[in-house]
Write a structure and sequence with these properties.
single chain; about 160 residues; about 35% helix; about 0% strand; flat
Length: about 160
């Protein structure tokens, strides 16, 4: 026991905390790898399957599946279809032909002549020429700054 205490006192709490965090990360990594090795979608639940379930899954892969498209029904379309079916199934006998009318000639008065419409076109003013103002003159470049006194370069040659 005294040797164990001497060994434990050799390292500080910082080292023990670092080793504990590394071990926790390694444990999480191993758990994630085991979960991914189950063959299911990553992050899904890893379930053990029985032999019957495995055989059923493997046989499903080889069979062909036929899916019929789902037909969307619209209320208006259904109502129209109902009316058409009703008319088709319950047609009435054709109506008897109307009796021949007696011939009566009626003279209509001639329509009154319409006054002629005169279209007046408003005079269009002549287009005025577009006058563009001249561009303003460019701003003059700033004058270079003059150095005050000593040279502008430092020479450490000697």
């Amino acid at each position: 026991m005294p040797r164990l205490i001497e060994f434990l006192r050799q390292y500080g709490p910082r080292e023990y905390l670092l080793m504990l965090s590394v071990a926790a990360l390694c444990g999480l990594g191993v758990a994630a790898l085991i979960n991914a090795a189950s063959g299911d979608v990553a992050g899904g639940q890893a379930l053990l399957k029985t032999k019957a379930q495995l055989e059923a899954d493997s046989s499903r892969v080889l069979t062909t599946r036929v899916f019929k498209p789902v037909r969307a029904t619209h209320p208006r379309r259904e109502a129209r279809r109902h009316v058409r079916r009703h008319v088709r199934n319950h047609r009435f006998a054709p109506a008897p032909a109307p009796a021949a009318p007696s011939v009566v000639t009626v003279r209509a008065p001639a329509p009154a002549p319409k006054p002629a419409v005169v279209q007046q076109v408003a005079p269009v003013p002549a287009p005025r020429p577009v006058v563009r103002a001249p561009r303003p003159a460019p701003k003059p470049a700033p004058a270079p700054k003059r150095s005050s006194g000593g040279g502008s370069q430092f020479d450490d040659s000697g």
